[in-house]
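Task 17 of the worksheet. Students: predict the tertiary structure of the chain below and write it out as structure tokens. Keep your answer in the requested format; marks are given for formatting as well as content.
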Amino acid sequence: MNPIKKTITLADGRQITLETGKLAKQADGAVELRMGNTMLLATVVSAKEAGEGVDFMPLQVEYKEKFSAAGRFPGGFLKREGRANDYEILTSRLVDRVLRPLFPDNYHADTFVNIIMFSSDGVDMPDALAGLAASAALAVSDIPFNGPISEVRVARINGEFVIDPTFEQLEQADMELMVGATYDNIMMVEGEMNEVSEADLLAALKAAHAAIKEQCKAQMELAEEVGKVKREYCHEVNDEDLRKDVHDKCYDRAYAVAKAGSADKHWRQDSFDAICQEYIDALPEEERDEKAPLVKRYYHDVEREAVRRCILDEGIRLDGRKTTEIRPIWCETDYLPGPHGSAVFTRGETQALATVTLGTKMDEKILDDVLNQGRERFLLHYNFPPFSTGEAKAQRGVGRREIGHGNLAHRALKRMFPDDFPYVCRIVSDILESNGSSSMATVCAGTLALLDAGVKMKKPVSGIAMGLITDTDSPKYAILSDILGDEDHLGDMDFKVTGTRDGITATQMDIKCDGLSYEILEKALMQAHEGRMHILNIIEQTIPAPREDYKPQVPRIVTMIIPKELIGAVIGPGGKVIQGIQEASGATVSIDEIDEGGYIEVAAANKPNIDKALELINAIVALPEEGKVYTGKVQSIMDFGAFVEFMPNRDGLLHISEIAWERLPDMEASGLHEGDTVEVKLIEIDKKTGKYRLSMRALKPKPEGYVEHNGRSERPRRDGDRGDRGDRRPHRDGDRPRRDGDRGDRRPRRDNNHHNENNND
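Model answer:
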């Protein structure tokens, strides 16, 4: 064993180590990455030969977090890791999007990249390290790859850019971007921001790329020391004469279709396909089956060239628009009667139907990932059924693409969601038509639906997808606003930007060409800004402000905060009290402990149910007041008095001396029994213990002859001045110590004053 190690030092002194040669040595490439107590193992394996008929790069990236990495058990009955969660899928996509364009165009072997988090202390964020680990594994392998690459997270904290911030640091950031790049070029960007400017976004990209260059250098040095020679391969059989013939006979016709400027996606596709099919049909029958796959591959290159040259040379796009022109837009709110909010947003041949549902705390999404636990109150789900593109196939669950697009739209809107909103909110975007930028249509439809639901958004948000066509033989380029699906497929960039009138809230960029200057990026951002403002104008014309009130079917929610010490009283033993409140009122009641106290949320479909629940809660949490009269229930009878529940879950002592003005020989003489309803006055709250003293006699007329002494009612002296007799409350053990010797002479005195026998001290 001869492990090789390289160390990368970040600007703040933290170190990342890359080591190969110790673990997973049967993989084509394996690298162990450590940062603090976080450890990732990245492996890569690629088949020696391509599958039959495969003319694309079959790459699969899997990121997995082990619960044992954080010393936790997986949830569920099986107690083991199952299918990938959303966070793992999103991390896998981040890595995939950077790696995929950098494999050779003619490399088609099945390739699997696995990144596993085996250790974490919850300080450093592992997703920002996954791309570096995967690239390092490719670098030390014999697999052809035009890298290395790396990914970093850049966050702006207190005006300063921080590379790969910790979880704690990220909470303070107003800008967060994941950036993937080679040593020379940025390849991928994804992140969210708090309404930042285009200039700030560019500055963040530059800071990230500077850090990535250092990480790429370390991988080059690691690969050089390992000394693996990249494998030779031959995954394509080409016929150059056939390639030239396809180009000569099909290019002009394909250019004519591209230049026709038809807005009908299906007409364009049928016209392009017909050119290819006519060429295949013209081949000798005995050659047709053999050459058809090659013809289709070569024709795809012809179609790509024709579309790109038409845009670059004549400024004509596939649907006839100018480069800065946005497709016709129509939108409508309150489209569906049932949901709490709904809207349709249509831009060209892309259409999204968004619905909003407002729920209670019980509807929160519970997060239980390895490093991320908590609850989420703002949700967005994106659905892309096959019929949206005219495909005849079944919909089989939610794919990675849907999770990724939904996540982008969620990040675009969540910072504009109102703070301290009482409802849990779920947006569902169903794509009904698709021809480019359905995720941005989701952002726009989501904004409209939120406003229709009466959600007081901080500001409306719009989104647009930008494209790019470059010329490899000249500095000529064209930036395209509101790209079509074909322009995305055949172009060099897919750059999605969302934001308000005051700044960018989210972005996602994938670059497919070699090299993209910051000048082009800046121009694309400014052109995107113009497009966003145009779309925002239409959104604001459709619904200028949030609905004044919620729709009738929306549950009403009232919140309140109670002292922390009363949380238990509202919940009750085993939840008995709060369940009783819900049963009695018909409302849904939830309670959480926060810094300020107990946060109570009461939700119901109508006001009477809410009022009833609030009445019951207020009866529990109301603070007792000295001197106030209460109606209570006798809970228990003791020798020295009775305990009375005068408020919910609050008992006070009704001492035998406070039941009546006359002296009672015992509790039987009081006539009180358990379960009796009595009126009592709260005469004292002990400042030290918080115990309550109750009185019934205080509510009755005072007998003649009583005088007030030291704040207490006392009977007249029976045989002269006897001085202060101290506390005469009965002792629990019945054996009160003598204060001044033998007191046996006192009994006759009491007997001699029989006329005062019934008076109490």
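Marker's comment: The chain has a mean pLDDT of 89. The longest strand covers residues 186-196.
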